[in-house]
Structures are given as structure tokens and as C-alpha cells.
Write a structure and sequence with these properties.
Elements (H helix, E strand, L loop, with lengths): L6 H13 L7 E7 L7 H21 L3 E7 L15 H5 L19 H15 L5 E4 H7 L3 H9 L1 H8 L5 H4 L5 E3 L10 E7 L4 E6 L2 E2 L2 E2 L4 E5 L5 E3 L1 H12 L1 E3 L2 E2 L3 H14 L8 E2 L2 E2 L16 H7 L2 H9 L6 E2 L5 H14 L5 H4 L3 H5 L15 H11 L4 H11 L7 H19 L10 H16 L5 H15 L3 H12 L8 H8 L1 H11 L2
Parallel strand pairs: 1-2, 1-11, 2-3, 12-13, 14-15
Antiparallel strand pairs: 4-10, 5-6, 6-9, 7-8
The structure holds zinc ion.
The site of zinc ion (ZN) has 9 residues, from loops.
């Protein structure tokens, strides 16, 4: 038996303990999505991490599982997001459930219909296995009726749990139920004035002001069933857990208090809350929380322009309980670490492999690509800087000379080359300033060129000795000479190890590059 130590196994073991003795049915996992905006990297990370726990659980417990990707499309529109068209039209629908607002993009039946389609498209692109569930459909179909009836019969107890967490001024009128106004169609503008658990109805008046809109004044008695009313968010979460018997759901640190209350509510309804890890949120370069509406262009799609998706998964896999910064400069390091994991993967025994990130990222080790070349993201990046070329073919030619194994793994290498080219064009090139050497500097660089031409080196060490010899000859500190070399050749003040880089491009090519830059 392998030792299962990777974090998805730790989660899975807890889950196995939890569901023990509760029949042999399908174990349900859930992830939540708010369709007021487009799916972002946090959504991706949550689905990926949940999938890893799910696979770990199947491996440990050998039981069938299902992942529900739940979209809260009955939620009301609070404010118009900045990055959508037809903002004036949308402003008229503030307070209405997202599923009853027209699609500002004009291609789906509703605002949330559009966002839901994007979510599915997004999850499909990355091959996730999930069952999509719209909240609206679930309400209308009656999935929640049984739970809603329980909540109505225990409405005072639910209020007793929630009211202490609310501000004084909100307590008086607060209700777990939000009927959809039969006249204006808004959801949070309604205020419940009487509960009738005997026939599962309530009386409400639509007269509350929320998000800058006022209720229409409509008064009615209506059923709580089949989507005529929804419950507020923390109660809604509990209702889903109750209805679908969710056994596992992870959530971000920002939802700790909500989850506590939802857990109390689901217990009050007569079932146990799911378990799940609490993950840290992503931060931007400066250490600020990445906001959904702002983002900084660092989307999953954009990541795949510059790096293989597996490198992002690799980054997401490590320590989910630690805050991670997400910005473009981390891309090369992520890819290099991921490639290193691929190279190391064949060495350990099959039993040890189950704890390696790559095993989890590549479907329980089923799709791990073989990679044995020494080419890294940074190798290609350095090569592009020196060659100042954006031809993938030329780069491949150099890489094949540098490492004969490149031919064997050319699909992986080629993909990396294409992505580094994109990264190089968008992030590296705009910051480059190639130094023009003065007379004396030129003499030093040409002395280096002469050595490259005259002495064919037998090893990287012999190559590495060359710039030191030139620095000594001219009486300058080696560090200064290296800096000059990088500024002239790479347009930056640091660079790869000289010996390794020279064996990558070849002595002859480096000599002619030096001559070119000194002309
Ligand atoms: Zn109304």
C-alpha cells in the first residue's frame, strides 16, 4: 500500500471517514459559481483542487463520485459590472434575479445564461468532469421544495441563528425568504410580513430599497415553492447541501463566517454539512486581494497564451492553504519547476508517485507526458534575448544542437518555444534596452570574441573560464565584465551562466553575435 501523504489524500481520508457507514451511493462534491461575472482564475483553481480531492477519494475509497458545479443564478444583480456592454439597460434591472435579466451580449436567453454558458465552455476547455446545475432550474423544478418547507416550518429558529450576526437596523425586517415580486420581478426589495407554514405560502410587500432601487409597493400572498421565492445566501448554501447531500465543498477564507452559519442551518434542517478545505485567496503582485471585477488581465486563457496550462495547475496544486501571488513574472519559474517535475517523474516507484503533483495534475498519473530534455522555459527565453529573433524554427534548430534529446521530445519543446515567443514579445521585449559599448568596452568584448574563435572548448567549464581571462587581461572585476556582456547581448543586467549559454548557441554563433553588437 502506498503512503498517501499529498494534501488531496489527506482531504479524501477525512471524507472517507465522514461517509463511512452511510451507504454505498454516489458521494457528492460541489463547487459554487457566482454568474454576475465571467469565470476567473479562482473558479478554475477551485474546480481543479476539488477534482484532485475527488480523484484521491476514488483512489482511496473506491466509491463513485459526482461534482456539481452550481451556479447561483437566482441571485439578484447588485451593481452593473464594469466590463459588460449595455450598462444602461442593465441598470434598469438591478435587484432582479440574474436569470431574468436580458443578456447584454445578446446571444443567450439571459444575463446568467450567458455567464453559465461561459462557465461550461471554460470548464470543458480544460477537460473537467462536472455536472452543471443552475439554481434557477433547481428552484423552478422543485428540487428545493422539501428543504424550503422545512425552513419555513423552522423560520424562527433560522432567524435566531442569523439575526445576532446582523446589524441592529437590519434585524427587524429580516427574513430568510425573499419572494420574487409578482409585479416588478425584483428579489431583494420584498419584505415578508407573514409566514404560513400550513400551506407553504408567505405574505410580502415589495417596498424595500436595495442597491439604489426601491420596491414597487406590490403586496401579495404567494407560495414558496418552484422558484416563486428564494432564500438568502447563507440559507441558500445550506439548502443546496441539504437537497443534494453534498459531502465535500471547499471554499475561500473570505467565506469562513458564511460557512459556519450555513453549517448550523443545515444541521437545524436535519443533515450534516459537508467537509472541505479552506483555501487562501490569490493576491496580486503587490500582495492585494485579486478582485473579480478588476483582475489584471491574468486570466486562465491568457496564461495558456504564455505557458502550458499544466504549469498553472502545478502552481495551484502546491499548498492551497497559503496565499499565493499571481502575476506575469512568475510564469517562467512555474514552467521550469513543472518541467523539472516531469523529468523526475519516472524515477520514484509507482507507490511513491501518487504523492507527486504531476500524478494529480495529469489524471492520477494517466496522462503524464515523458520529458527528458534539459531545455527549460528560461533556456528559450535567454536564447531569444541573445538572438533577437522571433523565429520558432531558428530557435528549434539551436535547441536541437544544444541538446540532442530535443528531437525525442520535440512536441513538448515546440509548444514551450511558441509560448515563450508570445511571452517574450509581450513582456520581455518592451523592457529591453541593448547597451551600445564604448571604445574600451568594445575592445574587451572583441577580445572575448577572439577567444571564442581561436579556442574550441571541450567543456562548459572551459567556456566559463573565458570571460574571467578577458576581465583579468583588461584589469576589470569579473562582475563588471559580465554585466557589460549581458547589457550588450541581452539588454538586461543579468543573464544565464556564460558556459551553459555558450554551449547552447555555439561558440561560432556567439562570436558573430558579439561582432554584430560591437559593429
Ligand atoms: Zn415589486
Amino acid at each position: 500500500m502506498p503512503q498517501y501523504t499529498a494534501w488531496p489524500f489527506a482531504e479524501a481520508a477525512q471524507l472517507a471517514e465522514k461517509v463511512k457507514g452511510r451507504g454505498e451511493g454516489v458521494v457528492v462534491f460541489e463547487t459554487g459559481f457566482g454568474p454576475s461575472g465571467l469565470p476567473h482564475i479562482g473558479t478554475f483553481a477551485e474546480v481543479a483542487r476539488t477534482t484532485w480531492v475527488r480523484h484521491a477519494f476514488e483512489t482511496l475509497a473506491g466509491r463513485p463520485t459526482k461534482l456539481i458545479a452550481f451556479s447561483d443564478d437566482m441571485d439578484g444583480l447588485r451593481k452593473v459590472p464594469l466590463n459588460v456592454p449595455q450598462r444602461e439597460m442593465l441598470a434598469e434591472h438591478i435587484g432582479k434575479p440574474l436569470c431574468y435579466i436580458p443578456d447584454p451580449f445578446g446571444c443567450h436567453v439571459s444575463y446568467s445564461g450567458h455567464m453559465n454558458a461561459k462557465l461550461c465552455e471554460f470548464l470543458n476547455t480544460y477537460g473537467f468532469d462536472y455536472h452543471f446545475q443552475s439554481s434557477h432550474e433547481a428552484y423552478v423544478r422543485g428540487d428545493f421544495n422539501e428543504g424550503l418547507a422545512i425552513l419555513l416550518s423552522k423560520v424562527e429558529e433560522v432567524k435566531a441563528l442569523i439575526l445576532p450576526t446582523l446589524g441592529e437596523e437590519k434585524r427587524e425586517d429580516w427574513s430568510p425568504f425573499f419572494p420574487i415580486c409578482g409585479s416588478c420581478g425584483r428579489v431583494y426589495t420584498t419584505r415578508v410580513v407573514a409566514y404560513h407554514p400550513q400551506d407553504n405560502t408567505l405574505e410580502y410587500i415589495c417596498d424595500t430599497e436595495v442597491y439604489g432601487v426601491k420596491g414597487c409597493g406590490h403586496r401579495a400572498r404567494a407560495t414558496i415553492f418552484n422558484g416563486k421565492a428564494k432564500v438568502g445566501w447563507k440559507v441558500d448554501w445550506a439548502l443546496r447541501w441539504y437537497t443534494y447531500e453534498v459531502a465535500y465543498e471547499m471554499y475561500g477564507k473570505d467565506l469562513i463566517e458564511s460557512a459556519k452559519l450555513s453549517s448550523q442551518i443545515v444541521r437545524l434542517m436535519g443533515k450534516e454539512p459537508p467537509i472541505g478545505l479552506i483555501y487562501e485567496l490569490f493576491l496580486d503582485k503587490e500582495g492585494r486581494k485579486i478582485s473579480k471585477s478588476v483582475g489584471k488581465g491574468l486570466t486562465v486563457d491568457a496564461w495558456t497564451t504564455y505557458a502550458p496550462i499544466e504549469s498553472l495547475l502545478y502552481y495551484i496544486f502546491a499548498s492551497p492553504r497559503k496565499a499565493k501571488r499571481l502575476y506575469w513574472e512568475i510564469v517562467p519559474r512555474c514552467v521550469d519547476e513543472y518541467l523539472d517535475e516531469l523529468r523526475k517523474y519516472p524515477t520514484p516507484s509507482e507507490e511513491e508517485r501518487v504523492n507527486l503533483p504531476v500524478w494529480h495534475i495529469h489524471d492520477r498519473g494517466r496522462t503524464v507526458p515523458a520529458y527528458g530534455s534539459k531545455v527549460n522555459y528560461s533556456t528559450v527565453d535567454n536564447l531569444l534575448s541573445a538572438l533577437a529573433s522571433d523565429s520558432a524554427d531558428l530557435v528549434m534548430e539551436y535547441l536541437e544542437q544544444y541538446d540532442p534529446k530535443v528531437r525525442e521530445y520535440s512536441a513538448v519543446v515546440r509548444d514551450i518555444v511558441e509560448k515563450v515567443l508570445n511571452y517574450y514579445r509581450d513582456f520581455v521585449l518592451p523592457t529591453k534596452v541593448y547597451k551600445k559599448p564604448d571604445e574600451r568596452e568594445r575592445a574587451m568584448l572583441l577580445a572575448l570574441r577572439d577567444r571564442l574563435v581561436e579556442f574550441p572548448a571541450k567543456s562548459e567549464e572551459e567556456l566559463q573560464a573565458m570571460p574571467f581571462a578577458v576581465a583579468k587581461e583588461f584589469g576589470v572585476p569579473a562582475a563588471d565584465f559580465f554585466r557589460l556582456f549581458y547589457e550588450v547581448l541581452f539588454g538586461q543586467d543579468r543573464g544565464p551562466r556564460f558556459g551553459a549559454f555558450t554551449s547552447l548557441v555555439g561558440q561560432g554563433k556567439l562570436a558573430s553575435l558579439l561582432a554584430e553588437r560591437c559593429a
